[in-house]
Amino acid sequence: xxxxxxxxxxxSGEVSIIPMWAWILAVIGFTALQVVAQVIPQxxxxxxxxxxxxxxxxxxxxxxxxxxxxxxxxxxxxxxxSPVLWTLVAILVPNALGMVLYFILxxxxxxxxxxxxxxxxxxxxxxxxxxxxxxxxxxxxQHMVTxxxxxxxxxxxxxxxxxxxxxx
Length: 168
Hints:
Layout: H1 10-15, H2 20-39, H3 48-78, H4 83-92, H5 97-105, E1 110-112, E2 119-121
Antiparallel strand pairs: 1-2
Helix pairs in contact: 2-3, 3-4, 4-5
C-alpha cells in the first residue's frame, strides 16, 4: 500500500479524505428524508413548519453519520488499521458507540521514510527498517526536537547543528 505524506492540516485536510461515495450517500440520505418529511404527511402530523424543521434536523444527522462512516473508512486505511473492520464496527455497534470506539482506539498517522519508503509511526527518530535519521534529536537523551529549538525540552541540553539531519 502506497503512503502519501499529507500536506493539508486541520479541518479542511480531514474533510478532504472523505470519499466521494460517502458524499453521494449523504446527499441522497438528506434528500430522501426531506421528501419523507414534506411529501408524505401522516394523519396527526404536526404543522408544516415543524415537519420541515424535523426533516432538516434528522436529514443533517443522517448525512453527518454517513460522512463519518466514509471518514472512518479512509482514516483507518491511512493509519494502517483494517478499514473493513473499523467501518463495520462504526456501522454495527449501536448508538454511535462504534464511532467513539474508533476515535479512542485509532493509531497515530504513519508517514513514509524518505530513505526506504517504508511506513514509520510519527515520533520515531529513526526508521526501523534502514536506520535513517528522520528528524532532529537531542544529542543527550535522543528525544525528538524541532529544527528551531535551541535547548532540548526534555533535558535542557543545548541542541547544536550536529543534531539536525543534513547538517555537518
